[in-house]
Structures are given as structure tokens and as C-alpha cells.
Amino acid sequence: MSDNPTVKKRHFKLKMPGAFFILFILTVVAVIATWTIPAGSYSKLSYNNANSELRLQNPHGHVTSLPATQQELDKLGVKIKIGQFKSGGITQAVSVPHTYERLAQHPAKLSDITGSMVNGTIESVDIMIFIFVLGGLIGVVKASGAFETGLMALTKKTKGHEFLLIFLVSVLLVLGGTLCGIEEEAVAFYPILVPVFIAMGYDSIVSVGAIFLASSVGTSFSTINPFSVVIASNAAGINFTEGIMWRAGGLFIATIFLLFYLHWYSKKVKADPEFSYTWDDHEEFDKMWSVESTSGGQETGFTFRKKLILILFVVTFPIMVWGVMAKGWWFPTMASSFLTFAIIIMFLAGTGKYGLGETGVVDAFVAGSSGLVGVSLIIGLARGINLVLNNGLISDTILQFASSLVTHMSGPIFIIVMLLIFFVLGFIVPSSSGLAVLSMPILAPLADTVNIPRFVVVTAYQFGQYAMLFLAPTGLVMATLQMLHMRYSHWFRFVWPVVVFLLVFGGGILVTEVLVYK
């Protein structure tokens, strides 16, 4: 024992591994799972636009063409209107009830650990390009000095009313989530809002809470979101308007809970910055996202050119939201839209007396894109885990096991177990539309056996899957945390009350629906 009283005793501190290591471990676990979980598959039904026929692929891969009629769907026990296939409402292969078969084990090879990482990245190229273009656009706007002067002007006007911005952003993203499922697209809002939150004295948790968490809460209570409740209702054989008032009422209460939670946390951080759950990493976060003067010799003040650059930068986001909601844009089109504005801004920033020049704007674009390489790779690695599970033919086995758990249960117990089943399935299939078409044709008809409406199962799917997606490394969480230099342990400390709220409050709604409609 040391006699020196000034020597402090070291305490062991467990440090949560980073995003890349967590996803690597999960990839290894997924590969092992393909050796231990029995392989199996349902028959899959899809619509062939080329010849206007249904395409039925049995578990062994044999494909049969069928007439695209309601009678054929009824024979198969697929309670979906044929019009949903023909109109494009159902775009992915649908699981056919009562067709599950055990298959020969299809274990992944050791080489699939790295192979899935590569192939998952290839499959994610659309969103990766979008992120690269977004990063380049940010880099050019920062280099122009428009961010710096614009933020100074904004923080002066909002002094004393800082939470109002969090309130407005959260409400808008809740609406975006419930109406059109803006989640992956929300990544575009970090560059414009995070520097503002830093300037107002907030931390990375507030940034993620007002953007990712708010949009996800909205999506959890989707009212007309085509990528969640609409496609799930279609796959369950019902109209998406069934149960919409329950979801809208739940959304209102959940939004109030979210705003109170964000207000409590942001007020604590504002009063004492060291209260922040991410205080240990705040220097790296501020260095990454705070806006500083990028070069000497620039024109000073909030000039017309800087105002125009900022206006063009901000305009890209409502255009993106409009394109997603009204025109069905996906990541390639969004990337093209952002690139168009990036080119215009590069011209404005590069020309004139104080311009950066051709080399300056190109270097700024490249530097901005390179800063988001890690985020893009995270998305690809997460998708690779799902490839391992699907190629190993164990996803359907897990679904079959889940469906067997809820047979012969009473209504309230049935729906709570269903909620927990979707919570687990949300980790395995983090895509809302993907889980809907895989699980709804199998699980929704089980509601008939306990005499409850199928829309209650659709609601359980929303609550269960999204409660998991707040946590699941296989979803968007890891890319978000990587982007904001946040540890998973810090995020978990903040988000677990929201997960508990969604499961408990959502479970209460589900049980009430069962008792009302029983």
C-alpha cells in the first residue's frame, strides 16, 4: 500500500466497444447461429409485372406461375387483395401461411464473416452515395464561412428561447415519421441542426433525441406511413385506416412524453454541461461538429453571398421531404437533388474576389465526403448481418417458432406475447417493410383464432419492432452514433426510458384494443 496520500486509487472502468467491433461480433454470432438454428423456409409469393402473373417459389426453390386473381390468393390462404400486388402496394415477396418446411442445414462459412460485410456494403451503395454527397455539400458550405456567420446571427436571436428550436424540430420529425417514415432520411438533418444545438449549449444526446428519436417515435405510431402501417396492413389483408384513431391518440401522448423528456434533459445540460451523458466525449464531438472560421482572408460579416449559400443549403431539405412524400423519391434521386445544389453552392463559394477557387471547393467537397466514410461503412456492415441470417435460412425458422408460441392463448396474453415477438424480430429484420411482408401473412391470421381484429397485430408490429430499433445495432442506431461520435453505452443510458415507455404504454393500448373489440 502506498504511503503517499496524493496517489489516487485506480478503479476499473468498463468501456463499451465501438460500433465497428460490435457489428463484427454480431456478424460472427450470426454465422454461428446458422450452424445451430435449424434451417427452413416458407413459400414466397410475388407479382411479376412483366407477364402480370403471380410467382410462387416453394421452400426448395421451385417456381410456379399462377394467374393473378383473387381466387388464387384465397386458395393459398394469403388474405391480401390482388389489387395490392398489381398496384405496387406489395413490392416484396410475401410469406405464404402454412407452407413452412424444414430444409437441409445451410450453415455460413468462415469466409462469410468478411464476405457478408462486403456484400452488405454493396447492397447499401444507394444510401452510402447519398451520405457521401451530403458530406460533400456540408464541406463546401462550411468552407464558405456561411455556417459560421449564420449561426452567430441565429444564436443572438434565439437567446433565452433555445428549447423552442428543439420543440419545433422534434414535432416536425414526429410528423415526418408518422406520415412517411422519415428515419434514414433524417441523417440529412444533422449537419444543419447539430452545429446550432452546440452553439446553444446542448450536447450530442439532445441532437440525436430531437432528430432520430423524434422521427422514430413518430414512425412507432405510424398513421399513414406507407413503409410501415400501410404495407403491414396490406400484407395482413386489411385497410390501413383500421385502428388509425388508436394510433393517432397514442402518437399525441407519446409526443408529449418525448417533449417532456427532452426538456428535462436539455434543461439539465444547459444548467450544468457536465451532467451530459456524453461529457466524456464532448471535446471530440464539439471538434467534429462545431463551426469555426475555416480560412483567413474571407469576406467578413453575414454577406449576401453567404446568405444565399445558406438559403440554398436549407432549401434542399424541404425539397427532399416533398420528394419522399409526394414523388416517392429514394436515395439515388435524393443524392442527385443534393448534388445539384452542391454544384450551385460550389460555384458561388469558388468564384469572386473572396472565392475559394476551383481547387478549394473541390477539396472541401472531398474532405466533407471523407468525413462520413465511417458512417457509410457502418450501414453496410449492419446490412451484412441480415444477409447472413437470410442466406442461412434461419429467419423463417425463427418466425415459425414465434407463431407457434401464441396459439391457444387468451386475447390479452396473446397480444402482449405478440408485442414481444415483434420486439425480437425487429433485431433480426430491422427493415419495417421487410418485416411486414415476411411476418404479417403468417402472424396476422392468428388474430382470427382468438377473435380479435387483425389491426391489433399490425399495431403490435409497430410498437414491438420500433422499440427494438431504438436499440438494435442491426438498424440505423450505430450509423447515427458513429456520425455523432457517441458511445452506445451513453445512448442506451438515455434511450432506455423511451423503450420502456413504448413497450408499457404500447402494451396498454394493445390490451385495451383487445378488451374493447373482444
Report on the structure:
- Helices cover about 65% and strands about 5% of the residues.
- The strands form two sheets. Strands 4-3-2-5 form a four-stranded antiparallel β-sheet. A two-stranded antiparallel ribbon has the order 1-6.
- Helix 4 packs across helix 16, helix 7 runs parallel beside helix 9 and helix 17 packs across helix 19.
- About 5% of the residues have low confidence.
- About 50% of the residues are buried.
- By secondary structure, it is mainly alpha-helical.
- The longest helix has 30 residues.
- The protein is globular and about 75 Å long.
Key words describing this protein structure:
518 residues; mainly alpha; four-stranded antiparallel beta sheet; two-stranded antiparallel ribbon; 23 helices; 6 strands; 66% helix; globular
In short:
The protein is mainly alpha-helical and 518 residues long. It has helices spanning 19-36, 70-76, 82-86, 112-123, 125-144, 146-157, 162-180, 190-199, 204-220, 226-236, 244-271, 282-289, 304-326, 331-350, 357-370, 373-391, 395-405, 411-428, 432-443, 446-449, 454-469, 477-483, 488-517, and strands spanning 40-41, 44-48, 53-57, 63-67, 94-95, 101-102.
